[in-house]
């Protein structure tokens, strides 16, 4: 898929020094001792839409909101909606908590991409709170999803993980940029989620990146890379 007929897609994540994005209990722990979320909130303010994987939604219950009125006002002044659209992908949307923050907090519209595994009854229930699209039998066709979102006018997508979704998007060459906050922490754990999980790439399939910038803070590094196509 050409990057000209899909949105610009960037991953933004907080990562421990050893590459983990949560611990072995799937707990959301501060990745650096400053616990500062500015980079992520700035990234949200920049994006037309925010995309998260089903596990992140089920485990973290993120609101995916901008938190301050100033950020919303800046977007409105720039001709955008007050908050970005929230998007998730799940094979069976029966697993989603419709009372969670994703559905109940903030001003962003909501979109659910799912598969034929979700029952018609469940789709009708969710449609009271969000737009629902069925794009596949067992897994959502992510390329089709990106093309559809582009046609809907979404030009920039922030991906907020987790490791499985990041891997699927990278595998399909659907990621343009990665912004990382690397914290002053080692989490360990062979079962803890990392920035990119999935099956893994072989030597020839490994993705190359080009470093754009590295900024050192007191308790963290901010690293920005472009994914080489
Ligand atoms: N530190 C950070 O910046 C950060 C950011 C985000 C998340 N996290 C952490 O990451 C962990 C979760 O990561 P994860 O790797 O386990 O999961 P994930 O990537 O959030 O979600 C994976 C799930 O998303 C759904 N999915 C992804 N691609 C799909 C496709 N093409 N079609 C259908 N469904 C698809 C599937 O849900 P179904 O099982 O329903 O099919 C899949 O099991 C959490 O512990 C969270 O705290 C950390």
Description:
This protein starts with 7 loop residues before the first strand and ends with a strand. The chain is an alpha/beta fold and 229 residues long. The chain has a single domain (3-227), classed as Dihydrofolate Reductase, subunit A, CATH 3.40.430.10. Helix content is 24%, strand content 24%. Bound molecules: NADP nicotinamide-adenine-dinucleotide phosphate.
Short description:
This protein has 229 residues and is an alpha/beta fold. It is 24% helix and 24% strand. It is built from seven helices and nine strands, in the order E-H-E-H-H-E-H-E-H-E-H-E-H-E-E-E.
Low-confidence stretches: none
Top CATH class: Alpha Beta
The number of distinct helices, counting runs of at least 4 residues, comes to 7
- Count of β-strands: 9
Q: What is the CATH topology?
A: Dihydrofolate Reductase, subunit A
Strand order of the largest sheet: 5-4-3-2-6-1-7-9-8
Tell me the distance between the termini: 11 Å
Q: What compounds sit in this structure?
A: NADP nicotinamide-adenine-dinucleotide phosphate
Average pLDDT for all residues: 96
Q: State which percent range the strand residues make up.
A: 15-25%
Radius of gyration: 17 Å
Report the order of strands and helices: EHEHHEHEHEHEHEEE
What would CATH call the homologous superfamily?
Dihydrofolate Reductase, subunit A
Biggest sheet architecture: 9 strands, mixed
């Amino acid at each position: 898929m050409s990057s000209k007929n899909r949105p610009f897609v960037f991953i933004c994540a907080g990562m421990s020094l050893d590459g983990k994005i949560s611990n072995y209990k799937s707990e959301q722990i501060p990745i650096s001792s400053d616990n500062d979320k500015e980079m992520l909130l700035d990234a949200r303010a920049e994006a037309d839409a925010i995309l998260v994987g089903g596990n992140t939604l089920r485990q973290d219950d993120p609101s995916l909101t901008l938190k301050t009125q100033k950020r919303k006002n800046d977007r409105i002044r720039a001709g955008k909606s007050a908050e970005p659209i929230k998007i998730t992908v799940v094979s069976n949307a029966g697993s989603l908590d419709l009372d969670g923050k994703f559905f109940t907090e903030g001003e962003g519209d909501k979109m659910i991409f799912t598969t034929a595994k979700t029952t018609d009854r469940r789709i009708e229930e969710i449609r009271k709170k969000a737009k629902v699209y069925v794009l596949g039998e067992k897994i959502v066709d992510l390329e089709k999803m990106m093309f559809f979102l582009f046609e809907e006018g979404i030009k920039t997508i922030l991906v907020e993980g987790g490791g499985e979704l990041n891997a699927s998007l990278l595998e399909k060459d659907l990621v343009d940029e990665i912004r990382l906050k690397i914290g002053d922490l080692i989490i360990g754990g062979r079962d803890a989620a990392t920035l990119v999980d999935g099956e893994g790439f072989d030597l020839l399939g490994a993705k190359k990146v080009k470093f754009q910038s590295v900024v050192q803070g007191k308790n963290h590094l901010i690293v920005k890379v472009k994914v080489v196509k």
